[in-house]
Specification:
single chain, about 625 residues, alpha+beta, Chloramphenicol Acetyltransferase, 2 domains, 8-stranded mixed sheet, 6-stranded mixed sheet, 19 helices, about 15% strand, globular
């Protein structure tokens, strides 16, 4: 077992480069952007959100920070030295500050879910058969990683770092008193060969390799899943997985109490060591066809509550596949060590695998029975579970999710007009928010940094001055259509430029984070620019967005970053776009369904501007 600590990151990164025969050797190190460039771009990003007097004050603050011999110059030199000796100068900091030090529950607040197309079965027999094929498909993908047969991915002609693929299997996040850590079991002498399967809140350890090292066939897996079903009838079993949905400090205390007992410790370790988890969910209450996609996304994201399937989750586990008896399915993952694109690639491979015709045959050799994992629940643990139930149900009731498919156009339409599909969608999001609130939201869009060794993500700040000018003009009858089209194209181009800068490692947010954390590491006073009102406004993300493109007709969903914010994720297909929109009910000013309606209207408006009707 390996903890994901700084020293290991440096050693482990080099090990991955070596053992994958160059998967990462051709990927350059992540650069440290020039200080003046970052501060200039940060100042511009503040324009849509600050009145002129506060903007001028922020400008003076930045000039003081960047003056010759000032604090910024020294911190920049320290960052550049760090970049020379580190596998990646910011990824470890990002992982710690954004994930492992966060104390919010992983459920809703952190773990993203991918809701997949509904499958064509509607009973437990179809559920088990599909789950067997799915498990075999995941093992097939893992075999490509283990045999170094996984093809290096490219973006815009450049190879991508493939390190994240080696970390999603046999890994798990573990709560701690002040910060969490990640356990990686795939590089120990005898790596795990089992998965965990959970049904009716009961966990099972299922070996998925034969004694000769070959993976179980679909027929063998199917037979084992039938055995699990026979042993997991609905009883009064406590939903142990609910504990992992708690506030991290609360769960950390319960975790220590849980592990005092040897039976519990062995069961928890089996879950943590597993290659991945499979959640066999019970069917949920039927809803109207219009609400089905939203209900399914919520089920994958959090399980639907303590009276539904939330007890079938272990939210700390890096990778969990959800297979419902009613045909719903999806993926839930913990993102401390992996982002959406690698998960989407795994999902695409697995769903293609499940479509392959394969006769399910009974195993030719006897297989050991799946091992049921038991827990000893004393009164303290019982109280922990009851508290977790209450808190999770409150969190689920507070979350509003609206999923929809925009069918008037997909990514092909913007391409015909030589516009970036992603940038056009982001401009529509800004217009939709502006129509609701009369201002732009501080917006973050995650962009992958896998063009660089050990790269994670950076942020595109989508609320640009150009987007503001277009939003102000869009509904103004005094502005001619030709001018609106010109402003739209300027907004789209501005976003495309920011995206390109981020992909090249020249965005601003990870650099600013690095400057702040470098000051702390050096024992210096944190510069005042990180303590002022402008920075607080600039990092209050009211609109969290992300494009997770997939060949599968799916959509990712996650919760907002702020109580008064939204989260919008989308998957642009050729002729339509899948969206998920979420908000918290506790904020009277936010409403997921209303923003979803405004997004539809904004996209339709952009289509009319770019391609007016013949009568117009």
């Amino acid at each position: 077992m390996l903890r994901l600590d700084p020293a290991w990151l440096r050693r482990g990164g080099q090990l991955w480069t070596h053992c994958t025969r160059g998967f990462s050797s051709s990927v350059p190190p992540q650069p440290v952007p020039p200080l003046e460039q970052t501060l200039s771009r940060y100042l511009r990003a503040l324009e849509p959100h600050l009145p002129p007097s506060e903007w001028q004050q922020a400008r003076a603050e930045l000039q003081e920070f960047s003056r010759q011999g000032g604090a910024g110059e020294g911190l920049q030199r320290s960052l550049e030295r760090r970049a020379q000796r580190m596998h990646n100068w910011v990824s470890e900091w990002w992982q710690q500050s954004n994930y492992l030090e966060s104390r919010l529950p992983l459920a809703v607040h952190s773990n993203p879910a991918v809701a997949l197309p509904q499958q064509d079965y509607s009973d437990w027999r179809g559920q088990l058969l599909f789950a067997a094929k799915l498990i075999a498909g995941v093992l097939d993908f893992k075999a490509k990683i283990d045999s170094h047969a996984l093809l290096v991915e490219y973006m815009r002609g450049r190879p991508l770092c493939m390190e994240q693929y080696s970390q999603v299997f046999s890994s798990c996040r573990v709560p701690g008193p002040k910060h969490d850590h990640v356990l990686l079991y795939n590089r120990i002498r005898r790596p795990p060969t089992h998965i965990t399967v959970v049904r009716n809140f009961q966990f099972f350890q299922l070996e998925v390799y034969n004694s000769d090292g070959s993976p179980l066939t679909v027929g063998q897996i199917h037979s084992q899943l039938q055995r699990i079903r026979a042993q997991s009838w609905k009883t009064d079993k406590e939903p142990m997985g609910i504990l992992t949905s708690q506030h991290r400090n609360t769960w950390g205390q319960a975790y220590n109490r849980l592990l005092r007992d040897r039976i519990n410790r062995d069961s928890v370790r089996a879950i943590e060591r597993a290659l991945f988890g499979v959640c066999l969910d019970a069917p949920v209450m039927r809803v109207s066809e219009g609400r089905y996609s939203s209900r399914m996304a919520a089920q994958v994201l959090h399980g639907g509550g303590t009276y539904s399937n939330s007890g079938n989750r272990w939210f700390d586990k890096t990778l969990q596949f959800i297979v419902g008896e009613d045909g719903s399915c999806g993926v839930l993952y913990e993102q401390a060590i992996a982002e959406g694109p690698p998960i989407a690639t795994i999902v695409d491979h697995v769903l293609e695998y499940t479509k392959q015709p394969e006769t399910v045959r009974a195993p030719m050799v006897p297989l050991p029975h799946p091992k049921k994992l038991y827990f000893y629940i004393d009164p303290e643990i019982k109280r922990d579970i009851e508290l977790a139930k209450q808190n999770l149900d409150s969190l689920i009731n507070d979350l509003d999710i609206s999923c929809f498919t925009f069918r008037k156009f997909g990514k092909n339409f913007p391409k015909k007009h030589r516009l970036s599909p992603n940038s056009l969608i982001q401009t529509a999001l800004q217009l939709a928010y502006y129509r609701m609130y009369g201002e732009l939201a501080v917006t973050c869009e995650s962009v992958s940094l896998r063009m660089f060794r050990g790269g994670r993500t950076d942020t595109v700040r989508c609320a640009t001055p150009e987007a503001l000018r277009f939003a102000q003009a869009a509904d103004d009858p005094c502005v001619m259509r030709e001018m609106k089209v010109a402003l739209l194209k300027e907004a789209v181009e501005a976003h495309s430029i920011l995206t390109e800068q981020a992909l090249q490692g020249q965005a601003i947010d990870r650099h600013l984070l690095g400057l702040k954390l470098q000051a702390i590491e050096d024992g210096r006073t944190v510069p005042t620019l990180f303590m002022d009102t402008a920075y607080a406004i600039a990092t209050h993300w009211r609109l969290r967005t992300g494009q997770v493109a997939s060949r599968t007709d799916s959509v990712m969903c996650f919760g907002p970053l702020e109580p008064d914010g939204y989260a919008v994720c989308y998957n642009p297909m050729s002729e339509h776009i899948n969206f998920s929109v979420s908000a918290f009910n506790c904020c009277e000013q936010t409403h997921a369904e209303r923003l979803a309606q405004e997004i539809r209207r904004a996209l339709g408006h952009l289509q009319e501007l770019l391609q007016p009707s013949h009568t117009a």
